[in-house]
Amino acid sequence: MSAPSDLFSGVQLGDVQLANRIIMAPLTRTRAEAHVPTEIMAEYYAQRAGAGLIIAEATMVAEGASAFVNEPGIYSQAQIDGWKKVTEAVHAKGGKIFLQLWHGGRASHPVLNDGKVPVAASPLAIDDVVHTPEGKLPYTTPRSLEIEEVPAIVEAFRQAALNAKEAGFDGVEVHGANGYLLDNFLRDGSNKRTDAYGGPIENRARLMFEVLDAVVEVWGAGKVGLRTSPLNGFNSMKDSDPVGLTQWLAEKLNDYQLAFWHLMRSDFAGEQQADVMSPARELYKGNLIGNMGYSKDEALGAIDSQELDAVAFGVPFIANPDLVERFKQDADLTEAKPEFFYEGGAQGYTDYPAISG
């Protein structure tokens, strides 16, 4: 085992050298216009370039997979050009930034996608409402993705990975969490298929790993991360054995030598309880990033004890663009304003102040 490290020390994640171990988690903020990244998004990310790594928000790999109103995509030249402004702004401040590649799956809604019915592992609707231009609407029942449609999904991720490279990102993260398409296939609570993509874990994980293979082919494993959330019940998700799933993933991911595995440790609603971090650390030989509710002190302890290689922070980065510096100075943190998480322009987005000095 290597010597204990500090939260503020540099770290090599795969092929990417980071200045510190404080990661900005992907955060959907819906400030794109017609799914094209905007100038204000470049300002927002550049403000947070002090993070060891920024993982940019969930970004659509294909048209027709929107689960929000103004989330960005990476499937058109206009989107590539918009993201170039973001990556250039972050790099100008000395930062590193990965793009999170994402398909909304059953969390997509026909109203957001020109009437297109969403696809999923199985025809099971999310038990919740979605915000649309027509107000809050219940999620619709998706249709099962046909086996012959799978190659097009994989190809969409592969092309998105190529587009992310053209846009100047330092790498990409495959979004395999929170009930979106890949996670929807992965967990047995939402995947009731009986074909090659359903049943045992190796079948349910097949789509995720086909996507991972395609993305790694584009970037190389050392510039690719994967995010999973075995416990999170968001989007009506559940697995009958989240610990077993985590253990299986750890062993499988050891074959990939990815830049990192980004593991969400808990459930947004606090309903599903288990320890998935310990078995992940025990079995996974690569770089492990922990996420969800870490305080500075807990993060320091997790790095010092080598439970984690880096820690991802979400909401604290929304209201504290200079979070790393605040942690260094042990300064107070600004409270975020949830009413501006998903709507508005600069307010609650780029207007949070940095500490002086």
The domain count comes to: 1
Helix content: 25-40%
**Integer average pLDDT:** 96
CATH superfamily: Aldolase class I
Oligomeric grouping of the chains: single chain
Which sequence of strands runs across the widest sheet? 3-4-5-10-11-12-13-14
Model description:
The chain has one domain: Aldolase class I (TIM Barrel, Alpha-Beta Barrel). The two termini are 38 Å apart. It is globular. The protein has an 8-stranded parallel β-barrel, surrounded by 5 helices. Strands 1-2 form a two-stranded antiparallel ribbon. By secondary structure, it is of the alpha/beta class. The longest helix is centred in the middle third of the chain and has 17 residues. The chain is built from 11 helices and 14 strands. The mean pLDDT is 96.
Kindly summarize this structure in a few lines:
With 357 residues, this protein is α/β, with parallel strands linked by helices. It is built from 11 helices and 14 strands. α3 (150-166) packs parallel to α6 (206-219).
